[in-house]
Write a structure and sequence with these properties.
Anoctamin; about 70% helix; Anoctamin_TM; two-stranded antiparallel ribbon; 4 strands; mainly alpha; 3 domains; transmembrane; 18 helices; about 550 residues
Length: about 550
């Protein structure tokens, strides 16, 4: 594709573009002039409409090379265990991305106690499931405390950044939203209108059946995996060689790779379907997309583990499958998300340099090279995939902690490299995204809390199924079930008590917010009193004029 960058034809050396707008090749001059006028008058709907119509291909801010170099030097260029420069990340990428890296760092350090405690359990009391009660109980309390403490840390950060209390803004239609042009009854503006019933028909008659079909296919693939496990186990029992003992891990590794492939293919399908549903607002689009992806990913990643735990009741296979799925998924994510894109980007960079050196045009070659290079970079689609990866990792660590306590240690090792690979990804693989303000991590806080509640049920059930606990109730299984349910309810009650007892905001932040609200109300009151006084004064003057002969 031929690249034309008319802005670079200028001979003014002081010209430094901040944002690049790539237009389609066949755009007319009148359209360019119209877009220029909309940009000058700061009307955002112009770019949005052109993105929807395909006239504007993409809009992105250029990297500030000097600021980026300073950020990299303090962030990831030296592989050492240290705190990240969260405030510097926020200054360059915005609050939303800074909150993700803050959460990643916090979650990694929060996993260390679980890893330290889980290691001796793994080494010394592997088969003593009754001793896992203490470890599982600690896990359940830990999962509650870390999420509540994160709320407090998040509130402190966003208060410092000025985004803790944000005024709700009226949302404009998202790019890609289409319909018959009409007048919005709320804003009075002309915009596309699309009937709600048509959207609901698309959701319930197309999207929902498609999601159910994908879930069924995921379960079908899971049963193929178990057939492979039975084949490998039978082969090992017949020969008993070292080669067949290694072969026992092959089905789990293949299944873990298939899970990652299915997750990514489904993600593309979910994005297409959610876009086809034609949601007017970006928030509605994101909510429907998150729901679709979370449901499928949860079933696809954890269905086999639940089946092994509660149907097959094979704890040895559960440990093996959990370890293989966790480690394989972490390695694949590191390669696919960061290392492979970075390698491809480096190759493309070399090609761009050769093209720039071959140019004889009178332009700023450095700027031209930067624009062409960043134009071909991948677009960062938000923190969704990053949070999803941590969410699934949290599930592997918490859902079956009493069976595989070493999961936290592997998660810590992965996250120590994840911090650097994600930083590399943001700085060198993707275009610089527009910064977005955020007060918290949004719906992901609820997702993590829901996972911690599910982990209570699964761990209590696994401990209740252990041979040691069953031996305590040889005659009455009903008593065992009642005790397990009672313990589960008690732990859930403890979780909710802890969540209620730990304030979401530190005391000093609460006081500052209360003070701010008081000062705002006082300022509003004084403004109203001043307005009333001016009105009374005006009425008195008009009354005096009427009395004057």
């Amino acid at each position: 594709m031929k690249v034309t960058l008319s802005a670079l034809d200028t001979h003014e050396s002081s010209f430094t573009p901040l944002v690049v707008i790539e237009l389609a090749q066949d755009v007319k001059e009148e359209t360019k002039e119209w877009l220029k006028s909309r940009i000058i008058t700061k009307k955002k709907d112009g770019v949005r409409r052109l993105l929807t119509s395909g006239i504007v291909i993409q809009v992105f801010p250029l990297h500030d090379n000097e600021a980026l170099k300073k950020l990299e030097d303090t962030w990831y260029t030296r592989f050492t265990i240290k705190y990240q420069p969260i405030d510097s990340i926020r200054g360059y990428f915005g609050e939303t991305i800074a909150l993700y890296f803050g959460f990643l760092e916090y979650f990694t350090f929060a996993l260390i106690p679980m890893a330290v405690i889980g290691l001796p359990y793994y080494l010394f009391v592997w088969e003593d499931y009754d001793k896992y009660v203490i470890f599982a109980s600690f896990n359940l309390i830990w999962s509650t405390v870390i999420l509540e403490v994160w709320k407090r840390g998040c509130a402190s950060m966003t208060y410092r950044w000025g985004t803790l209390v944000m005024k709700r803004q009226f949302e404009e239609p998202r790019p890609g939203y289409h319909g018959v042009l009409g007048i919005n009854s709320v804003t009075g503006r002309e915009e596309p209108l699309y009937p709600s019933y048509k959207r609901q028909l698309r959701i319930y008659l197309v999207s929902l059946p498609f999601v159910c079909l994908c879930l069924y296919f995921s379960l079908f693939v899971m049963m193929i995996y178990f057939d492979m496990e039975n084949w490998a186990l039978g082969l090992h029992e017949n020969s008993g060689s070292e080669w067949t003992s290694i072969l026992l891990y092959v089905p789990s590794i293949i299944y873990a790779i298939v899970i990652e492939i299915m997750n990514r293919l489904y993600r593309y399908a979910a994005e297409f379907l959610t876009s086809w549903e034609n949601h007017r607002l970006e928030s509605a689009y994101q909510n429907h997309l998150i729901l679709k992806v979370l449901v499928f990913n949860f079933l696809n990643c954890f269905a086999s583990l639940f089946y092994i735990a509660f149907v097959l009741r094979d704890m040895k296979l559960l440990r093996q499958s959990l370890a293989t799925l966790l480690i394989t998924s972490q390695i694949l994510n590191q390669i696919v998300e960061s290392l492979l894109p970075y390698w491809l980007q480096k190759k493309h960079h070399v090609q761009v340099k050769k093209k720039v050196q071959a140019l004889k045009a009178d332009i700023d070659a450095t700027l031209y090279e930067q624009v062409v290079l960043e134009k071909e970079m991948g677009t960062y689609l938000g923190t969704f995939d990053d949070y999803l990866e941590l969410f699934l990792q949290f599930g592997y660590v918490s859902l079956f902690s009493c069976v595989y306590p070493l999961a936290a240690a592997f998660a810590v090792l992965n996250n120590l490299t994840e911090v650097n690979s994600d930083a590399l990804k943001m700085c060198r693989v993707f275009k610089r995204p527009f910064s977005e303000p955020s007060a918290n991590i949004g719906v992901w806080q609820l997702a993590f809390e829901t996972m911690s509640v599910i982990s209570v049920v699964t761990n209590c059930a696994l401990i209740g199924m252990s041979p040691q606990v069953n031996a305590l109730f040889p005659d009455s299984k009903a008593d065992l079930i009642l005790i397990v349910v009672a313990v589960e309810h008690a732990l859930l009650a403890l979780k909710f008590i802890l969540a209620f007892a730990i304030p979401d905001k530190p005391r000093h932040i609460q006081m500052k917010l209360a003070r701010l609200e008081f000062e705002s109300l006082e300022a509003l009151k004084q403004q109203q009193m001043k307005l009333v006084a001016e009105n009374l004064k005006e009425e008195w003057r008009e009354g005096g004029k009427e009395k004057t002969p």
